[in-house]
Amino acid sequence: MKRRTLTLICAAGLAAGIAGSLAGEAQEAESAGDGPRYANGTDLVRPDDYRQWTFLSSSLDMTYDAPGARSGPSLFQNVFVNPSSYRAFLENGRWPDETIFVLEIRASSREGAINDAGQFQADLVALEAEVKDDRFADGWAFYDFGVAGSLREVSEPLSGDRVAPCVECHTEHTAVERTFVQFYPTLLEAARRAGTLKPGF
Predict the structure, then answer these.
(1) Is residue 199 part of a domain?
(2) Cβ atoms of residues 168 and 184 within 8 Å
(3) pLDDT of 129-177, one tens digit each?
(4) How many Cβ atoms are within 10 Å of 119's Cβ, its own excluded?
(5) CA angle 44, 31, 85 (to 5 degrees)
(6) What count of other Cβ atoms lies within 10 Å of the Cβ of residue 58?
(7) Phi-psi bin for 198: left (phi > 0), alpha (psi -120 to 50), beta?
């Protein structure tokens, strides 16, 4: 009888331990929210579910190259942002800490188009990200997960000569903070109402 009682107590304790562990994991995942997840402090874990986030805009062939300098098919650029940051921006026209944007670059195709001049999105080409987080010296960081077929699970923040053009462009040509809100029609009016647009926009 004592042995059976002891076994039941051990089993109950084990079950409670497992339940507590699962609850702790669920609480940890919930507390992480939909913002950026890091490894080693500042390395960004690639968000696999970004296509369930809020879609901001899509552009075609937006490039820093001179006209005619780039060869090859046209490229689409799709921008997604974590939903909680999108909701916050709608309220006050500013991006909260731990905002993450994903830039998805896709090839274009004409084959199968229903007209003679149309283009539509095709295969994934590359994936990049931008993060607003006060853990970084200037509050922002940029990431490159590489090209389709060999995307990195974790990316270090760009630095040195690799990040300099990003910082320059996202400082000089953006409508709100370091983001191209002028290209996000659902947010442009929110920024106007909040008075957060930079001069000239």
Answers:
(1) no
(2) no
(3) 999 999 999 999 999 999 999 999 999 999 999 999 999 999 999 999 9
(4) 15
(5) 65
(6) 14
(7) beta
Residue with token string 């974790």: 154
The alpha-helical segments, DSSP class H, found in the chain are 2-32, 83-92, 164-172, 185-194
The structure's pTM equals: 0.80
Q: State whether 18 and 84 are in the same domain.
A: no
Domain-located, residue 201: no
Q: Are 106 and 136 within one domain?
A: yes
Question: Per the structure block, which two tokens stand in for 174?
Answer: 């953006």
| Tokens representing residue 198 in the block | 């930079």
- Tokens 């699970």, located at residue: 153
CB 130, CB 101: distance < 8 Å? yes
- Domain span at residue 65? 34-194
Going from the C-alpha of 5 to that of each of 12, 16, 18, 155, the distances in angstroms are: 10, 16, 20, 52
Alpha-carbon Rg for the chain in angstroms: 22
